[in-house]
Every structure is written in C-alpha cells, then in structure tokens.
C-alpha cells in the first residue's frame, strides 16, 4: 500500500472547496457523472481508431445509493485508470501561486473548479471520505483503490475489480445526508444529466402489480442521449419540436415558433429556441433557456450569455465554447460569449423575417403574442431594431396590420400637420377612448392601437427614429388640435363670457385624488362634443414610462393633469353663456365696473411710485395701494361666488362635466349615482 500527500502548494484547498461551495453542493453529481461520460467517450474514441480492440459491451453509467452506509456510488465502464494515471490526474493539483489564487477566488469557488479541472474534488463538498476503485482498459492492468478523507493525505493499494472502468464511492458526511435519498438524486439527475450522451441508469424501472409498485429487471435510464437539438433539422418534424417543448415545459401552452441553431464557425453552438405565448403583459418570465456544455447542464440563468430581450425565449443552448463552471463576470466579458450572443440575435431576426415573408397572414395572427418580445428587442438592441424594422407591425383600432413603411404611405396625405410633421394618432384602450377614436375617424384619420406592456417606451423610441414624425394619443387634445391644420373655427363667445364660464365650470369640477383639472376653451364645430377631457401628451407619457420603471422617477410622483376643454361654439355652451348674462348680467357688470375703476386707480398708484425707492413712497400711498388690492380681491371673490352659486343650481353644467368624465371612465361611485339621478330628472 502506498501513502502520500496530494501535490498542492497549500493545505487549505479542501476547506475552501467545502466552505465556499456550500450554495452549490449539488453540482458534485454533475461533475462526477461528467467525468464518467468523458471516460466512456474516450474509450469509444480509442475503439474507433483501433487503440482498443476489445468489446465495448454495456457502457451505461450507473448511480446507486446505500442509505444504511450513507454512500453514493457512480460507476462507469470507460477507460479506467492505472496507478500512474491516478498519480497524474488525481494527486497532482499543483498550480503556481496557489496561495494568491486561493485568496483571490475563495469567494467564487466555481472559478476554482472550472479553471483548474478540480471537478472530481467537488465530491469533498459532501463527503467525509472518497474512494476510487478503478481498472484501466489496457491489457494486464492492475486494479487499484485510491482513498482520501478530505485531508491532503491519500492511500493507494491494489484492489479487486473484474471489469474495466471506475467506481467512485462517496461516504456522505452528516451535514449532507439529504443527498442519500432516492428522490433527491432523481431530481438532480433530471436537472443536470437528462441529456448526457451516454446512458445513465439509476436503479430499476418500476411498475404496478397487485396494487403496489414493484421493481422490474430493466434499467431506469434517466437521460435522452440523442436530444432534439443534436439532430439535423431536416430529420425533424413540427411534432418533434412540439413534443420536446412539452417535455421541457410540461405546464406551458404550445409555443408560437421555434429556431433550430446549428453553428460550427467561428464557434460551436447548437440549440433550439422557442417563442413562448406570453398570456399577459405581467407574465414575463425569464430563466427559461437552459444552457448546456456538450449536453451537460450548466444553468438556466443566461443573462450576459444572450441579449436581455432574448431571455424571454424558452429552449436550449449548447456550446462547448462556453466554459462549464465560471463566474458571471467572466461569462459577460468572454469574447466567445459575446460573439455567440450577437449571432443568436441575428438568427432570431432572420427567422422572424423568414416567417413574415413566407406567410404574412400567419405572422399577423401571432403578432399580438410576438409583439411584446419584438418591441423589447427593438428597445434594447440597436442591431435587432435595424433588422426588425422590416417586419415589425403596427396595428390599428380596426385590427389591420401594417409595416412601418406601409403605414407611413397610408397616413402621410391626411395626417401631416401645418408644420409638415407626420402625426401618428394612437389609443391605449379602444373602449375607454372610444369617443376620441370616433371623432378622429370622422376627420378621416387612422388610429393605431398601442396597448402593450412596452408601448409607452416604444412610442418614445420610434418617434426618435422616424423622420419628422410625432405620436399623439387620441385623447390628448381636441380633434382639431391633434393634427393642426391652417383652417380654424371662429369662437362665438366673447372674452368676458369665456372668463365667466371658466369660473362656472371650474367650480363644478370634482376633486379627484392625485388629479388636477384646468378649464380651457376651444373653437370647435357646433356638432362636436360640448365638453371633453384631454391629457397633455408629454406629461402623461412620462408618467407611464415612470410607472413601468417602478415609479421612482420625478414624473411618477406628480398628480395627473387634465384639461377640461369647453367647446365655445356648441349650442349648449352658448346657451349657458346667454343664461349667465341674463341672470347675472347687471350684478356682474357692476362688479366689472368697480374692478375696472379699482384697477385704474392701482395703475395710477403704480405709476406714481415708479423710479422711487421704497422709503421715498408716502405711507398714505402704500396704505391706499393695499386697500385697492384688497378691494379688487374682494370684488373678484364676490364675482366668483356669484358664478359658483349660479353653477351649483344649473344642472346642465354638472351634466356636461359628468358626461365628459363618463366618456373618460372617470365617473364612479357616488358621483356616478348622482349623474344617473340627474339624467332622469333632466329627461
């Protein structure tokens, strides 16, 4: 029996492996089975070149547990090892500057294991002792047994083993007994090994017999050795892709499309990506792409490996050029990973364009499901935007679809304003904004439907991309001002009537939480809506974008600002103006005359103190100025109260305001109940 020390430059390699890999203890199984796969494939290579002339026979890798002994055993029938090879591959862990290296990487143990081929040593994360019983495939090889208890000391001795290959026996420590459990091992095998290229058996299959589950004499093979992405697309049908998707995501709806990747230059990359059906804007799930390295599962956290927007896709990527165990920062800076990321983006865009050109009708039918994904890509990836702009669609409120170029041609004649800017009108809710949409259509305008999760950002983005173009929500102004033209209506109300009606309508606008209303007048057609509510485009869009980003922006804290727009030419409005003149005319004239006289005196006093220093103004003039200003305020308040009292008793004013609120879905609760009762009274 030989004893010795493992050749490391420091003795703290094992404590570091144990201590700093605590969150990833389960990867020991992946590492050991990956080594067994490598040993098996190496033997197959030797056989193919004539270096091994024996029978390959059964090459199944077997995993077994012994709950009484607390052991896990991984057995392969691969190349095996001689005592010299154990010395070379297992005992010599020498690398330069080990102390510096360990200090640098001790918090990133994946980097230790990945960079320095220490996969086998991950077994010490869960074991108090590890044994290797191995026999090389070479003729007359002597079986050997290697044993180590997690210190740097080991023993090697002759052993009995009839067949070639390697058994690794892990004596699980007390902290990790949860791994000596059939269900736990099954779960880990499914997670890490379900697509490995060599058959892996864990126990025997079972079947129900006489009301109970019994084992049968057939290996329970847990993996698919020839998964779909390793096969040629020409040999596969749509049903094969659908079945594979259901195997990966049993609870998901069928996907929209798939892309089969098969690249061998300038790097190796295979895989199948699926466009999932995203049921709602809120249900955006990432971490659905599984990353493999030579069919060995690595991670489902692929940020940094694929562009941000592609993390919405589902499926599998496999590349030997992506290191198996490395840190996130390493992945994100690796040049191969960046090339792969760029290539996947191109392939996705090419596939979408291909589908669009091959069957536009099908593409349009699936657009509502694809839209969120494509807009996300166009917002976050400049190259994808350039490619996607050929097939990205705009949908109008009538359910018709247009490419960017097609839509521009359709609307440019009628929707260009007096400043030669092309105006794209849009709605975010076809039902809530119905009145405004109909008013726009009556003018011959077309209205887009932009009701998606990213649309407030997307509108902002494409507005900057399109030349001399702006997007205007259909309820952001009166219809005549959405696309300003040269022709204008003349206002029927006088300046004094507008001033009076401003007080009348302002006094009856409801006090809504976090909302502010500003009354304004527009000269519209007599048949246009008498009173409407609009919301200024810029502020509303900034608030929507702020809400999507979590509401932390400046605009997110501001109240909603609305315009209560009164049509100064509508018969009902001119009727109210005439009624105010009739009922309050004399009183208002008296107040107006007093205010005019007071303002005249105020102007005289201001002229008198011009060019004088504060101390040069006589005290009597100062006091008179204060008195004049006070009287002006009192007269204005008196006028405001008169108009407010009038408005309170005029059901038509409240009715017009409530109709405007109702058309904007802003009339609720008690206010809605009052409106219904008042409507009955007026009828």
From TrEMBL:
The keyword Methyltransferase does not apply. ATP binds at residues 31, 35, 76, 81, 96-97, 166, 328. PROSITE patterns: HSP90. Keywords: ATP-binding, Chaperone, Cytoplasm, Nucleotide-binding, Stress response. One of its GO terms (molecular function) is ATP-dependent protein folding chaperone. Gene3D superfamilies: 3.30.230.80, 3.40.50.11260, Heat shock protein 90, C-terminal domain, Histidine kinase-like ATPase, C-terminal domain. CDD domains: HATPase_Hsp90-like. The keyword Nuclease does not apply. InterPro entries: HATPase_C_sf, Heat_shock_protein_90_CS, HSP90_C, Hsp90_fam, Hsp90_N, Ribosomal_Su5_D2-typ_SF. Transmembrane segments: none annotated. Pfam families: HATPase_c_3, HSP90. Residues 602-633 are annotated as: Disordered. NCBIfam families: PRK05218.1 (NF003555). PANTHER family: HEAT SHOCK PROTEIN 90 FAMILY MEMBER. Belongs to the heat shock protein 90 family. This is Chaperone protein HtpG. It comes from Alkalitalea saponilacus.
